[in-house]
Amino acid sequence: MSTSSLRRDAGPLGLLFSSIGGMVGSGWLFSALNAAKIAGPAALISWVIGGLAVLLLAFVYAELSTMFPRPGAVILFPQLCFGDLAARIMSWVNFLAYIAVAPVEAVAAVSYAANFWPGLAQGGTLSTTGIAAAVGLMALFSIVNLFAIRAVLAVNNAITWWKLIVPAATVVALMAAQFKAQNFTAQSFAPAGAGGVFAAVSGSGIIFTYLGFRQAIELAGESANPQRNLPFAIIGSVLFCMLLYTGLQLAFVGALPAGALAHGWAGLSFPGISGPFAGLAMLLGLPWLAAALYADAAISPGGAGIIYSTTAARVIYASAEGGMLPRRFTKLSAAGVPLASLGLAFAAGLLFLLPLPSWRELVSYISSIGLLAYGVGPVTLACFRTTLPEAEYPRPFRLAAARALAPAAFIVSNLVVFWAGAKVADHLLGALGLAFIAYCGWELAKRRTLSHLPWRGAAWMFPHFFGLWLITYLGPLHGRGVLGQGSGAAAIALLSLAILALARRCALPDPQAAKARYHHP
Question: Which of 389, 332, 424 is nearest to 515 (CA)?
Fold first, then answer.
């Protein structure tokens, strides 16, 4: 095993396609139907809201990741800004956010295959045979990742070309076959009102789909020119997928045949429900498109599973490099692959192959975990503008109007958790609280004190997580209903601004580690 540096073989197209490959997975095949069931034709607005929310975060991370182009950058940022305890807490969130996706993509691929081999799934849950098939797919994702990053990205690039052609062809074919403008006003444009529009952002897979933009960030340390390549890849991938997904939703609603809405938008369904676009294609007499879609049902999730396995290993590598995991996870193979980290990502991902809830419910959790993990970025950016002044530390990519956009990005990341509802917040923030208690118990048993922990840097996180849980608990979705959508959103905005002000006071006033690791343009 070699401990040499990760290879810098990731070029601009490889980074762009890594992010697009992360976004075009199982999400596009499920989300148009799920969003329409929740929000009706107003799901178009949900896609725009989700895209703009993630675009705000993409701009924030374009600045941060070019300042510190390292593998597993989302672990590095809070460590440099707030210290080890804050970084450790965020490492737990990121660990869950990353390792869960490859198993979900494997489950999606096997679920699609159950249309042809019914023994793979029963009642929407994988059978024993289906679980074995998903394990095999996860193993394949890991095997591909044994090759050098250039080879992995070459495989991903080839898959991504296919994944771009099929959705684009789907938009054109459906709109050419049938487009009914009246579908957009049937039973109201927004049958569930504003609440349905916002709920679809978290609950239909929209945010889950967009979060693939982060793949380029995690591969930042493997790019020869991150100042140029990262903004291009991060921002370009989000803008491209906003256009693609809005087009898919438009084509899907417009192509619905007569009688499809007999039971309302919430009762919308098709034959071959594991692939709703394929079911719609068959109803419209487009068997060639249905065949391509069922093939893509294996290829798209497979490609996303490969690239998420890549980045999950880099996040584990970064956690070990930062002292939050044993150093053995920083060991690299001769090909520059973090083998031990890749093995841990695979092993931990197997836990998600136990009987899972529906894809739609599961992605609500992953969306909230992902936004919670990425919400630390705007906070870090706001703090670094003070502690790393631009006069001394010029930005390779500088976010204009950061004073307004960083708070807006933080508010939006918290709103997505609120929109997911109290059920998700209970599980997510409850699990985070239990992990923190267990960690404190471990440290107390070892040292008989907790005074050695850098509490100051993490102090803003505790009121943040508790306040987020409380507002969601009082909210309209699975909560007490004390707060509505409008009042709840206002409460989230006020909480976010207050936490941002507190975080500025908690940040390391003279972050020596950040100065030492700053990447000079």
Answer: 389
Question: pLDDT of 61-86, one tens digit each?
Answer: 888 888 887 766 677 888 889 998 99
Q: Is 240 exposed, middle or buried (0-12, 13-18, 19+ CB in 10 A)?
A: middle
Q: Would you kindly state where each structural domain of the chain is located, as residue ranges?
A: 12-258+276-350+360-517
Amino acid at 296: D
Q: In CATH, which superfamily holds the domain spanning 12-258+276-350+360-517?
A: Amino acid/polyamine transporter I (1.20.1740.10)
Write the DSSP string, 345-397. Answer: HHHHHGGGGSS---HHHHHHHHHHHHHHHHTHHHHHHHHHHHHS-TTTS--SS
Please tell me the pTM assigned to this model. 0.79
Query: Using an 8 Å Cβ cutoff, are 332 and 339 in contact?
Result: yes
Q: Kindly write down the DSSP assignment for every residue of 93-143, as one continuous string.
A: HHHHHHHTHHHHHHHHHHHHHTTT-GGGEETTEE-HHHHHHHHHHHHHHHH
Q: What is the rounded radius of gyration, in angstroms, for the C-alpha atoms of the chain?
A: 22
Amino acid present at 157: N
CB 33 within 8 A of CB 276: yes
pLDDT in tens, 164-195: 899 999 999 999 999 999 999 888 898 888 88
